[in-house]
Fold this protein.
Amino acid sequence: MVKINGEFLDIAGKTISEYLIETKYDIKRVAIERNGDIVPKAEYEQTVIADGDCIEIVNFVGGG
Amino acid sequence: MSPSKEELIKALCDRHGKELQDKFSGTTVAVCGLGGLGSNIALSLARAGIGKLILIDFDRVDISNLNRQQYKVCQTGKYKTDALRENLSEVAPCTDIETYTVKLSENNLDKYLKGADIVCEAFDRAEEKAMLTNTVLEKMPDKYLVAASGMAGLGSVNSIKTRRISDKFYLCGDGESDICEGIGLLSTRVMLCAAHQAHTVLRIISGEYNV
């Protein structure tokens, strides 16, 4: 299982890019931490989500 | 007659304790975006006696900003960097102010943020917020980042929170109230979020890293 934003999901094996597209995130608005480290945007396509990963997807909204 | 700088610093030391005030005075904080979040963050940090603020914004004060941003009617049309420098120098002259009237991008961030210990993300647009966050976390791992997302509208004050996303990355706001959904930004809720950010900065400086 993979923990994403506090929720346990059975998505190990997908890439970060695949997961973002499936779940309709706007890639231009997100920052992603994986096991406490930032995932560089250039690595979304290659980064495969592994069993046991703890991922935080910060999805920014406008206003400031 | 106005008090001297020595008197002002002594008053800060009396209030905060010398040890903590020395930490505040020895810290440089960059504020990226000087709108509702940034102008309020800067004012709070200057009042606390932060040593130096790096203030960055490309825009000018507009009449539509006056409902929530720390500018005066007579400053409409001025660059926000210049207007905020004026206002801060009146309330907290002990804080050094460095201003840059530029639009930040991933290509120039390093140039303007290199002197900062802590960076506050205070932009308006979601894409810019994400750009700053990704760039600082990827390329400047020594810096703390305090960002904000979700403070529009009339939602409960109690839904504005501070979360520690990773060691050096803090996020304030309710995470979902988007300006694009037709709810305006109100001074109260924006100031509340700005206060979360400024307070997080003070806690980090004091060595309190948990939220």
